[in-house]
Structure prediction request, 117 residues.
Amino acid sequence: MKKIINKKANCFFDDVFDVVKLIPRGKVTSYGAIANYLGTKSSARMVGWAMNASHTSSLKIPAQRVVNRNGMLTGKHHFTTPTEMEELLKKDGLIVLNDTVVDFKNKFWDPAIEIDL
DNA sequence: CGTGTGACCGGCG
DNA sequence: ACGCCGGCCACAC
Prediction:
């Protein structure tokens, strides 16, 4: 089965942070992918909730690399500025068009595959 | 301590 | 094809 990155993280919350922080530059993932990696694909909602905490958290969480299944920047509105998310993604070498990651499927980074061998 | 909601996803009508 | 509803766990009131 899938083993969590750090056992110290007992909550989704912390696990999500670790996974998101491990997302390589130029790559993006989805809430469902993270939830799936954590073993609860049905709880994708909490992943987004964790991201919300990332905004309040002192840690720098690349939440811009986390998008929904469609590759759409659903949470852009939660950033410091509505354009902060796509700006950061563009800096990562990604292309954001109409609030959606272009070539998302090619840029997709699945933690369950990349992390868990 | 109980209820509600949350940046989603998948299934069903 | 589109719309609605349920589900999952954690945090806020």
